[in-house]
Amino acid sequence: MKTLPWTGVYPAVTTKFTPTGDLDLDAFLYGIHAQVKAGADGIIIGGSLGESSTITHDERIAMLSATLEHVGHKVPVLVNIAEGSTRQAITLAQRAEASGAHGLMVLPPMMYKPTEQEVIDFFTDIASGSGLPILVYNNPVDYKIEVTPQMFEVLLKHDTIQAVKESTRDLANVTRLINAFGDRLKILTGVDTIAIEALVMGAHGWVAGLVNAFPAETVAIYRLVKAGRINEARDIHRWFLPILELDINAQLVQNIKLAEHMTELGNEYVRLPRKPLQGYERQRVIRILEEGIATRPSLPDYLHL
């Protein structure tokens, strides 16, 4: 059985475009390099932050292949699956596996409010159609579908379903899942603003968003918490929180791409129908980022923790 460590920081990386909306693999790999250099423990391609709804299967595979060529097997590389069709989801899973992906992040069925049994069957069919380890993305706040502990009881009969991106925003759910499944289900916190609390409560990893612009600070928080140096991690988090709150926003993609631009790790180009931030909201986000960049904390030697 294939498995992954499911520990550490897994950036949900942004997809980089040219001004005309085409895929920009050079800019994309520049960002990947920054993440690995800062100590990221995995890479997730084509997630919600990666503008999943506007990129094709071919573009996902192109980014996967480029990433694997760039980083080899230094860190696991996952492809996100967000499909309304079981058949299309399985097709993408099989293409990702054939192209060398180390794992999958999978959302429940999109564009349709399924029953609990339909959700279970959707994940089961993907698990049966591919041998790759699966991270279940559980985000009922944004996607209106919750994968409950009772549903995980059924799903965990499949060895390749191994982890959850826990984005319910209910911190108690970390403890519920640990109490129910122990280490059988690895928990990766998926909400930047409460990641430190989830890690303290036992989450194994962090699928992060603002890491795209602030990779070192994100990885430092994770490693300091796991080393028991909570006060140091908390100090960084307190500086970081106004920026992290840009992740829990309908325009999180534009927010984080603006942050990447301002930290010289990417550009602002998004794919229609999205457009870069405008007007008052743009100025508000710029003020938050300028303040954060001007007061960036000095970090300890976290890479050797």
General description of the model:
The protein has 305 residues and is an alpha/beta fold. Helix content is 45%, strand content 11%. It has twelve helices and eight strands. Strands 1-8-7-6-5-4-3-2 form an eight-stranded parallel beta sheet. α8 links the parallel β7 and β8. The longest helix is centred in the last third of the chain and has 16 residues. The model has no long low-confidence stretch (mean pLDDT 97).
Characterize this entry briefly.
The protein is an alpha/beta fold. 45% of the residues lie in helices and 11% in strands.
Question: What is this structure's SSE topology?
Answer:
Layout: E1 8-11, H1 25-37, E2 43-45, H2 57-71, E3 77-81, H3 86-98, E4 103-106, H4 116-129, E5 134-138, H5 140-143, H6 149-155, E6 161-166, H7 172-181, E7 186-189, H8 195-200, E8 205-208, H9 215-226, H10 230-244, H11 252-262, H12 279-294
Parallel strand pairs: 1-8, 2-3, 3-4, 4-5, 5-6, 6-7, 7-8
Helix pairs in contact: 1-2, 3-4, 4-6, 9-10, 11-12
